[in-house]
Amino acid sequence: SLPADILKIDMQFVHKIVENPKSLAIVETIIELARRLGMKTTAEGVETEEQLRILNELGINYVQGFLLARPIPEEEISLLLI
Q1: Is 44 a catalytic residue?
Q2: Can you tell me the distance from the alpha carbon of 79 to that of 72, in angstroms, rounded to the nearest whole number?
Q3: Taking the model in full, what pTM does it have?
Q4: How sure is the predictor about 1, in pLDDT bands with cuts at 50, 70 and 90?
């Protein structure tokens, strides 16, 4: 098996971190656990500035989501790689 070095946090937790203390606690715990294990963390589904702010405060390493970029059509990807 391949060694795991990045732990992804599902968007189901990320979407609720602003209004749901339990989701916030879960995300905070995942980030801390990953840090202790020497792993990086990626939060999926980041859609708001508030979510991004909270995740940055918690020490997230990477984020993915519509706040940063929308999906790119396949035919446009090659233009970015040139």
Answers
A1: yes
A2: 11
A3: 0.83
A4: low
